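Example record

One chain of 332 residues, shown exactly as stored in the release files.
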Amino acid sequence: MSLIKWHDQWPGGIPSSIRQHEKPVQDVAFATRAWRCFVREQWVNVDGTAVDQQRRVLVERWATAEQEFRDSYESQAPDDDPCFEDPEKDACLVGRSKDCSSDVYICLTEWTPEKQALLAKIILTLFNGLDGSFKFDFLATNISMMLPFEDNQGDIVDKFKFLQSVARPNFFDIHMALDGTVLFTDTAPKLVIDDRTLETGLALWVQFESNGMRELVYRPQMLMEEFPYFYLDIHYNSEPLDNALIYMEDSIEEMGPESILEDEPVAMRRPFMEIYLSSKDISDYVDLYAPGFREAENSGGGLAIGYDLERILVGKGRSLMIVEDGLYPQQK
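Predicted structure tokens for this chain:
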């Protein structure tokens, strides 16, 4: 399991000409077939950073083109043309994964020793209930940290899909409609760790519409023994967020479009063992997965200042690996 720091964002920021589609679309493949016809005609095989640059150029060109230009591709595109699926057939997918999402996204606005210590607590909640009740140790496959931090300012929910799949264009996910606006095929719930998560334990689970707007938002308390069960339902059993939260059905029905359902916060600057809501003694598991963490918290008055995240063990003999832009040591 890795924590991946994604630095390679759109130079200078995503241009304002690139906008999300006004409304969600049921059949994204049909609505974006002209875009794929355009990309396949224009794509030139390149290597390295030129691949992302070419993707950005094509996105911006489609967004700013005259409508007559886009219409010309609409007339050429077959009605049953599928979305981009296979890198061997569509070179524009090179370097991207069909599983275009990590399990967890970290979207902070700054990085300090205090935030690192608070993040360590959050990472510990991603173990198997901290009581050995599941057959694998760590719940997440990968964690993505979205950089630069200043791009995460403002309402992270409304900008998340652009940060995920437009800033570093992922053509498995991002597609473009005939009017030049953006649609997405990956609408599955995402677990987002933001500044408020570090202070309260309340993450963001967001399910999206095909135009990247929020469909349902829930702030779950990560520091409770029930959290891994919700995580498994949503990420491994592919439950829509509203199905996983069926026990909150009445509350969900009363929510407005901008409402966020929330659990109770905890005081994250207190020691982990004091705030983790569990019916069991989990101290042995905390010591197993994060050697020296409790002692560091005691020395820091509740915050393990300076505790190296790579000391956290995510499997037998395997520590959390922090990598830059998805490049593992042997690839650098």
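Notes: Confidence is low (pLDDT under 50) at residues 327-332.
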